[in-house]
Please model this.
Amino acid sequence: MSKALRYNFRKSSYSGPRTENCVEVADLPGASAVRDSQRPEAGHIEFPSAQWAAFVVAVKQDAFSA
Model:
């Protein structure tokens, strides 16, 4: 069994029930794992907690809008 299967992934709260472009996130000790909800078999990427928290803050501040 792969390590990712033991992670408790949850769909983003910003993803609606009919939304196709979704990510799933799992909380890990000291990190977060992120994967594509439509292709979970493709694997995931992990970010240290500090990096993930900085990303979430930037998203909430709309730092990535054009």
Notes: The first helix runs from residue 49 to 60. The beta strands are 10-11, 23-28, 31-36, 45-48. The chain has one domain: 3-60.
